[in-house]
Amino acid sequence: MTVTPSILLLLALSASNTVDEHDSDVVTVQPGKTFEYEMNETFTHDGFEISITDAYYTEVEQVMDEEIIDIFGEPENLLAIEFEFKNVGADNQTQNFSVSFYGDNFIITDYNPSMYLPEVEPGESEQFHRFYDILEGVESLEVDIASFNDDGTVDTAIVKIIVEE
Q1: What is the CATH number of domain 2-164?
Q2: pLDDT-based confidence at 119, cuts 50/70/90?
Q3: What is the rounded distance in angstroms from the CA atom of residue 13 to the CA atom of residue 132?
Q4: Which end of the chain has fewer beta carbons closer than 10 Å to its terminal beta carbon, N or C?
Q5: How does DSSP assign 114-127, residue by residue?
Q6: Angle CA(21)–CA(27)–CA(28) in degrees, nearest 5?
Q7: Under DSSP, is residue 84 helix (H, G, I), strand (E, B) or coil?
C-alpha cells in the first residue's frame, strides 16, 4: 500500500478568518469553503500554521516500544502521519487542539496515547507524529484537527488522505 502525495482538505470553521497577505505560501482558512492542497502546503487554523508533511507505511519495530504494542496489539499496516505546526498566535493554546482519525466506516487503531498536540510557545514550531493501524481495504482516511472555543463551539479542519494498494 502507498499513500498518494496529494490530500484533499475540507474545511468547516465556525470562526471567521481572512486571507494572510504577508506570506503567499500560507493560506488562512475561511468558513464554509473547500480547499484542495498538496502535501506540505500550509494552512492557518486558529492561530497555528499547520502542514501535513508526510504520510507513509513503516515497520512497527522502528517506531513503537513493547508497552504500546502490549496495550494495542501489533499493527498489520502501520501508517505514520507527520505534522508540522507553528504557533503564530499571541499565547499558547495547543492544549485546546485535538487530532482524530477516521476511515471508510472502519475502526482505526490510534497508537498515540494522547489525542492532543504538544504544547508550542508563541513563535515556535514543532513536528508531530501520529501512528495508525490501517485495515486492508481502507481507501481513504480523514484527519480531523479540532479546536474548542470558550463559547462551546468547535472549529474543525478535515484532511482527507487517499490510500492506494
Answers
A1: 2.60.40
A2: confident
A3: 26
A4: C
A5: --BPPP--TT-EEE
A6: 85
A7: strand
